[in-house]
Amino acid sequence: MGKSLVVVESPTKARTLRKLLSRSYDVTASMGHVRDLPKSQLGVDVKQDFTPKYIVIKGKGPVLKSLREAAKKAETIYMATDPDREGEAISWHLQEALRPVNKQIRRIEFHEVTKDALKRALAHPRDIDLNLVNAQQARRILDRLFGYKLSPLLWRKVRGGLSAGRVQSVAVRLVVDREREITAFTPVEYWTIEGRFTPDGPDTAFTARLVSRDGTRFGTPLEENVHVIPNEAEAQALAEEIRRQGYRVLEVRPGERQRHPAPPFTTSTLQQEANRKLGFTASRTMRLAQQLYEGIDLGKEGTVGLITYMRTDSVRVSPAAQQEVREYIRKTFGEAYLPESPRHYRSRRNAQEAHEAIRPTAVARTPEQVKSHLRWDQFRVYELIWKRFVASQMASAAFDTLTVDVSGGPFLFRASGARVRFPGFLALYREAVENGEENGEGWLPGLAADQTVRLLAVDPGQHFTQPPPRYTEASLVRALEELGIGRPSTYAPTLETVKTRGYVHVQDRRLVPTDLGMLVTDLLVEHFPDIVDLNFTAQMEEELDEIEEGRRDWVKVVREFYTPFEKDLKQAEKQIVEVEFPEVEIGEPCPECGRPLVRKHGRFGEFIACSGFPECRYTRPVGIGVTCPLDGGEIVQRRSKRGRIFYGCGNYPACKFVSWDRPTDKRCPRDGGMLVEKRGRRGTHLKCINKECGYSEAPRVAQPVPAS
Question: In whole angstroms, how large is the CA radius of gyration of the chain?
Fold first, then answer.
């Protein structure tokens, strides 16, 4: 009896499977796709029902030859590619290539690279799912028609090297629209007032917020039916009146609340949390997750996949995994930390419920146990996945709450406190974005109704309404998912594409559109409104899902898209005039040839260049108008290889000054160092560039008014 052949995509996965399977199986890797549409032509016969013309990818000839030789000798061929559309399509292309030499081809599917999962998969082989293949094929053809037809138009009308895509163009539009919201935003000033009270001395002081006066509530410009304190004059007048009152506790309201754990990770939530907690880009997170999935050498235990498949939009967990984690929680934390029954979470609409959430393949492999076998970045991602999964099946956290109303004359103040009564899942894991329930509120001193309290100080605070924040990678992925745009496999490559094409750049970990991104978005909105319409793009994703489920014909879906798109394309070709970025002289001669220097627009925005290009290739970044503290040169904005903005001296490499934070022309009052702009959750503030100094300027607020 001959050996069977197992085919996977990657050499790493192949090495893991060789160690997990018996000697009756040979394992080989296809190195990803072996066939695709040609790069040199459209490769789609539009007139013949969009028939694709697949060719062997350049460089894959020897791989296919080797696969055919192995297939001839095999008793059965098992396609063990990833369990999604892309993996199914790779298996189908391999089947088409290998069927002439061996017709015994089956598909096996597993969501974790472990011995038990492989055993189950080999016991239940199936045929290749053509609905899945057709959904991938439809997406590939749509993207080819979109990119191959639209990108050349951008090359001719705007600049070479540009591209447009179904998902990437919508992603850029979201960033552009948000930037314009911010630009158009007009801050509105408003004030709040806090009082510092004590029942018997400074050690028992607590802070309460002014809630109302004579029953009229105070609030912000964003609230309805409230009085907004508009300026400092009114705030100080109220403060003076507040100081003249006597105060007592009107009411004490104890209470309790619970906080429930978050579901285990999907692809998008893993990318979001890794971005917020670890600062990792979506592509880096997925690269590390793939390594953990495909297999890690654990020494004596051998090579094994540490996590389940990392491209999923489902939060489902298998009953066996639930039972395993519940037993771990019982033994490690105790019975109190275990809910009465396993937690079940609801996936978003259209999620692939055949998949599971991202979880460890064995809860017993704690992060500390495998740490010595992982690189630090692999460890951080595994720790995140492991803790999130275990926490998702733990008991809720319980909080005691206390609300105290303090009245004096016409004024009502309110203080709130919260403290953890039972930590539950918080004993193990906290999400990156906390809502401040137990953090920041603190607890309140022992108070009783009708108790007299003394006012220590009145603190009027100035505020301004804030524009919506720029997207981070995390918040953009969340927005795309909530809008139904893209799928787990598309988020990371989409973000990389919009950065490498120069449509957006990263500044202080936030996405900022370039002039080019705004220009291309405006062209698409004007001439291809459907392409960048959020609802249209989301609807297209739903139709691809329907193809996968066998409810739609892929040819009809592609035709419904292409017919109006082709009309828009012909119209745009006539209407769009060639875009020219004017070159503006800056009044300086080129230091290399003496010709005038000009300000130009490039892939990542403006830069200074010689007007004698291409004979003279002198360029430099645009300065920010701040003098370098080391040699007096002008500080310029630069970009790292990963697209992140930083600031350096224009005289580099002679001067090595560098800062991730934007320098200013202001000086530190303590040590005379340069002050730089530091972005935080509460906005931008100035801090000293010298870390050992520690000086920082908080946003301006009025000083507390001591009570008499």
Answer: 31
Cβ distance 197 to 413 under 8 Å? yes
Q: What does the alpha-carbon distance between residue 308 and residue 310 come to, in Å, rounded to a whole number?
A: 6
The residues near 118 (Cβ < 8 Å, ≥ 6 apart) are 17, 20, 21, 108, 110
Amino acid at 432: A
Query: Is residue 78 annotated as part of the catalytic site, yes or no?
Result: no
The count of domains in the chain is: 5
Report the b/e string of 162-179 with b at 16+ CB within 10 A. Answer: bbbbbbbbbbbbbbbbbb
Q: Are residues 414 and 493 in the same domain?
A: no
Query: Of residues 309, 429, 471, 562, which has the active-site annotation?
Result: 309
Among 100-109, 392-401, 603-612, name the one with the lowest average pLDDT.
603-612
Terminal CA-to-CA distance of the chain, rounded, Å?
A: 98
Residue 284 lies in a domain: yes
With a cut of 50, say whether residue 439 has pLDDT above it. Answer: no
Percentage of the chain lying above the pLDDT 70 cut: 94
d(CA 549, CA 296): 34
The C-alpha atoms of residue 334 and residue 650 are separated, in whole angstroms, by: 60
At 227-247, the pLDDT tens digits run 999 999 999 999 999 999 999
Averaged pLDDT for residues 410-436: 86
- pLDDT for res 708: 41
* Whole-number Cα distances in Å, 657 to 585, 636, 653: 28, 10, 9
- Look at residues 10, 24, 134 and name the one whose alpha carbon lies nearest to residue 80: 10
Instruction: Indicate if 515 and 565 belong to the same structural domain.
Output: yes
**Of the residues 553, 575, 597, the one at which a domain ends:** 575
Average pLDDT, the chain: 90
- For residue 245, the enclosing domain spans 189-260+397-464
Distances (CA, A) of 35 to 91, 131, 478: 11, 19, 33
Are the beta carbons of 651 and 628 closer than 8 angstroms?
Answer: yes
Say if residue 641's pLDDT is above 90: no
Q: Which helix (H) or strand (E) holds 105?
A: strand 105-107
Return the number of other C-beta atoms located less than 10 Å from residue 386's C-beta. Answer: 24
Torsion of the alpha carbons at 345, 347, 349 and 355, rounded to the nearest 10: -140
What residues contact residue 202 under an 8 Å CB cut-off, 6+ apart? Answer: 456
The pLDDT of residue 635 is above 80? yes
Structure tokens at 228: 């907004």
Query: From its phi and psi, is residue 654 left (phi > 0), alpha (psi between -120 and 50) or beta?
Result: alpha
Q: Binning pLDDT at 50, 70 and 90, where does residue 402 land?
A: very high
Place of tokens 């002050």: 675
Residues 6+ apart with CB under 8 A from 427: 333, 337, 394
Mean pLDDT across 265-286: 94
Q: Does 11 fall in a domain? A: yes
For 3-12, 237-246, 575-584, which range has the lowest pLDDT when averaged over its residues? 575-584
In a domain, 704, yes or no: no
105 shares its domain with 171: no
* Domain contains 707: no
Same-domain status, 480 and 556: yes
Q: Above 90 in pLDDT, residue 642?
A: no
